[in-house]
Amino acid sequence: MENTRLKWREAFTFTRSEQRGFRILTIILLLTIVARVAYFRCVEPPRIQFKIPAAWLKSDTTQFEDDNSSDTARNDLGYAFAQVKKNTRYWHDSIPAKNYAQPFKRSRMIELNTADTLELRSLPSIGPWLARKITEYRDRLGGYYRAEQLLEVYRLTPGKLDTIAPFLVVDTSWVKRIDINGVTTDELLKHPYLSRSQAKALIAYREKHGAYASVVDLKKCLLIDEKTFEKVRDYVEVR
Question: Is the pTM of this model over 0.85?
Answer without folding.
Answer: no
